[in-house]
Amino acid sequence: MARGVFKEIVKSFLIALWFMFLTFPIMVIKVNTIDQTITWRWMNMLYVGGGAFFLSMLWRFLMARKVAAKEEEDSWQKHVGLRFRTDPKFYLPGLAVIGVLTVVFPIFFSSYQVSIMTTALMYVMLGLGLNIVVGLAGLLDLGYVAFYAVGAYCFALLNHHFGLGFWVCLPLSALLAASFGILLGFPVLRLRGDYLAIVTLGFGEIIRLILENWNEFSFGPSGIAGISRPWFFGMKLSLQQANVYMYYIMIVLVLFTIFVVGRLRNSRIGRAWIALREDEIACQAMGIDKTRTKLTAFALGATWAGMVGCIFAAKTTFINPASFTFMESAIILSIVVLGGMGSIVGVILAALILILLPEYLRAFSQLRMIVFGASMVLMMVFRPQGIISRVKQHYEWHREA
Amino acid sequence: MVLEVRGLTMEFGGLRALDAIDLALARGEIVALIGPNGAGKTTFFNCVTGIYNPTRGDIFIASQGGTRERINGLKPNKITELGLARTFQNVRLFPNMTVLENIMVARHCRTRSGILGAILRGKRIVAEEKATVMFAYRLLKRFGLEGHVNDLAKELPYGEQRRLEIARAMATEPFLLLLDEPAAGMNPKETEDLDRLIKTIRDEDGIAILLIEHDMKLVMSISDRIYVVDYGEMIAQGKPSEIAADPKVIKAYLGESFDA
Amino acid sequence: MDYFLELFFGGLTRGSIYALIALGYTMVYGIIQLINFAHGEIYMIGAFTALIAASVLTLLGFNGFSLLCLAGLIAVIYSAAYGYTMEKIAYKPLRQAPRLSPLISAIGMSIFLQNYVLLAQTSDFLSFPALIPEIAFLDRFAAFMMPSEVIIFVTTAVVMICLTVFIKFTRIGKAMRATSQDKTMAMLLGVNVDRVISVTFIIGSALAAVGGVLISSHIGQINFYIGFIAGIKAFTAAVLGGIGSIPGAVLGGLILGWTESFATGYVSSDYEDVFAFGLLVFILIFRPAGILGKSSSEKV
């Protein structure tokens, strides 16, 4: 036993040394080319060494546990989750509590907090939309942000040139985004897996670059400002009031999204998407039109992004191409994968965690992105199936058919 | 004739996988397609089911009372809609869907609800969903799989996966069923059950069946006629007894002795 | 005519760098069917390490050619180390996982490395010393060809030849080829697949570092974000030439380099990146296998 522990310590020690060597130039030596100075930060070596030692012990411990637990089912999750969803004694009170909390939220929290929650809800909606494309239909879309941008610019431009309001533009943004979804879907019908991912990434970047460079159309990098907020019975709202209004609008829209996406999933078209994801060739052999199914997935998925884009423009009253980078697509994709592909509850949880956590840890705001990147890696290594892994439609027969 | 194939040739670049194949299948027949590995049998299936577009030749299908249709180059889902269903050499179920859902998916081309219907769930749509579920359940019962209704397809034992695949193909209400090595990996008892199952499908549903198979016992037992291919060419056809005695077939395929 | 030649050699230079980075993508994809999203970051780390090494070495009195070689060598060693470590942490545990998982992990690793350098160094652009020394006899071509450009494509050509020889004639090169064709079989035949994969990452990373050092000397500045764009473009090049194919990566790199150079020179320079992405999309739609790639069909 002591022998084993000793070996582990030596191993971690060697790993710590390796990381100290690895990070030496970048962590220790800071070059300032303007002043032509070099700063040596030897203390960082200590942090790296200590951190690497500790983390490598933790890593190997968790890995060993993961390998051992592989055979065991997520039984507790299955039972609790299933009972929670199907037994009214559980889910009705649960929903009621959540419902009350969401409605009274703005009363107890500051305007700033409300704004953050609204952002989180926006990502919930984006996640649910992308969930249709990636989670249900299995189409790896890395350019989802393009539809988000389309929705935002649709509202911004219509508002700027014609003075059209939020409520009018919301469905228009959705429609335009859906059309772009079909437009994007057509060329990629034959592509699979990684290739599909890269092409969609390319499309996303192309859209952003066009928005950035076609100044006559999109006003380039300076973006569009002064976008009107949503109409509220003709009244002029203060910033705080507008925030709260936006929050409630988001709640309604998220509920709408959950409703629609849930209905779509447990329907003929939802099953066709899942079949497409599971086995494209078998799905065709079962009479499903692959082309229509894929295009429908793209279009329907894009619709939500378009709507959120419109909301984003109304919320921030200013948009520019810098808000629509590949990083956004990556974040939304992470939400879907972390949530568990195809699971609505999972996506909601993942969006809330990924967006709210960094906000509430603002103290470490500088480390936000680096923690985000690291979490993506760790999540995939230790729990690739996501938060909610089994998404099964459960049928019961109460009498002999 | 339920299925008529004339002069079917399939070339992949320089490779000729099928060379002027003629084949016919009448209503109520069970016909077997046999031949050594790599002879082109699955390629033939893929041509008939629309996965490949044949280089030359014609493929006609005709349901009872229906018109004769040329199905070359049609998309696979369209061909299934016309009434031709298939199973695969390597089981291609939807692994992460439940057994019931696997069957329900196959009802896609026989049902009509669309996006709006899915969201609004009007009376008609709800009725259609219910009918789909019931149809699937009854089909599973018929195949002895109703106990696995809510299990994921990938969790099923191999023999039952194969049965499920046949059930799934049946759910599309075909008049012509193509089975690709249905007995692969089965023990003698399972093969006997399969024998009975296929005959039942022919007798009760009036479905014509074309199967690719290596299990000679099964082939001899259920086939009305047999076609033999080797290197993409048809080298023999006829009744089982004729095939068993055909020296060309024995040379190309049967090789060692077997018991009929 | 001079303008054309200038664009030609400019494109050749770009293409060479894209080729060097693309090789890393293509080799890794060939072996484990993973698009290593973080590969661009290795290139960036190579450039940063070279800058840091050069600064320290300059203080120690090195200059000229020896400075270039030493700084380059250090950059290569470190990039290889990063590549090796990255594989062990983010990809090795996911070898059996569904295809999406390593991709997400790679994206996460890319974000992590970008921000690691950002935090440890700076978000500003740092000026990179002109490590490539002047070469007198090339002055006559100064109208359209810079000496650093010559060094870049000569180096690339030499590296390419060495790599090809390595893959073709050494034992581990053969092991790499075997593993990329059938991993399980290679394993059964006694090939140490883990080591082969590590070597692949090491070589790919080293090549990216060479590219990073050379082009940074040429352009004169770096920052933490250069990996992303270079990575995407190099990936385009790899796909263009046929992902998994080594000569394809070179071909793709050159084509991309020339396309960008001539398009920005004769059409418009604002849309430079759009041309690259447009080319990528175009190729993937009409010929996903790339120019030299073999289209693999699924057995039904």
Radius of gyration of chain A: 24 Å
Structural class of chain A: mainly alpha
What general outline of chain A do the C-alpha atoms trace?
globular
Strand content of chain B: 15-25%
How would you describe the overall organization of this protein?
- Chain A contains 16 helices and four strands.
- Chain A is an all-alpha fold and 401 residues long.
- Chain A folds into two domains: 68 residues; 274 residues, ABC transporter involved in vitamin B12 uptake, BtuC.
- In chain A, the strands form two sheets. Chain A has a two-stranded antiparallel ribbon.
- In chain A, a hairpin with a 4-residue loop joins strand 1 and strand 2.
- The mean pLDDT of chain A is 83.
- Chain B folds into two domains: 170 residues, P-loop containing nucleotide triphosphate hydrolases (Rossmann fold, 3-Layer(aba) Sandwich); 76 residues, no CATH class.
- In chain B, the strands form two sheets. Chain B has a six-stranded mixed sheet with strand order 6-7-8-3-9-10, sandwiched between helices. A four-stranded antiparallel sheet of chain B has the order 2-1-4-5, covered by helices on one side.
- Chain B is globular, with a radius of gyration of 19 Å.
- Chain C has one domain.
- In chain C, helix 1 crosses helix 9 and helix 2 packs across helix 9.
- Chains in contact: A-B, A-C, B-C.
- At the A-C interface, helix 1, strand 1, helix 8, helix 14 and helix 16 of A face helix 2, helix 3, helix 4, strand 1 and helix 9 of C.
Descriptors:
heterotrimer; B: alpha/beta; Rossmann fold; 2 domains; six-stranded mixed sheet; four-stranded antiparallel sheet; 10 helices; C: 300 residues; 1% strand
How does the SSE layout of this entry go?
The complex is a heterotrimer of chains A (401), B (260) and C (300).
Chain A: H1 2-28, E1 29-32, E2 37-40, H2 43-69, H3 75-86, H4 88-108, H5 111-136, H6 145-162, H7 166-185, H8 193-213, H9 215-218, E3 224-225, H10 239-265, H11 268-278, H12 280-285, H13 290-316, E4 318-319, H14 326-339, H15 344-360, H16 368-382
Antiparallel strand pairs in A: 1-2, 3-4
Chain B: E1 3-12, E2 15-25, E3 30-34, H1 41-48, E4 56-62, E5 68-70, H2 76-82, E6 84-86, H3 99-106, H4 115-120, H5 123-142, H6 158-170, E7 176-180, H7 188-205, E8 208-212, H8 216-222, E9 225-230, E10 233-238, H9 240-245, H10 247-254
Parallel strand pairs in B: 3-8, 3-9, 6-7, 7-8
Antiparallel strand pairs in B: 1-2, 1-4, 4-5, 9-10
Helix pairs in contact in B: 3-5, 3-6
Chain C: H1 2-32, H2 39-59, H3 64-91, H4 100-120, E1 126-127, H5 147-169, H6 171-181, H7 183-188, H8 193-219, E2 221-222, H9 226-241, H10 246-266, H11 272-286
Antiparallel strand pairs in C: 1-2
Helix pairs in contact in C: 1-5, 1-8, 1-9, 1-10, 2-3, 2-4, 2-8, 2-9, 3-8, 5-6, 5-8, 6-8, 9-10, 9-11, 10-11
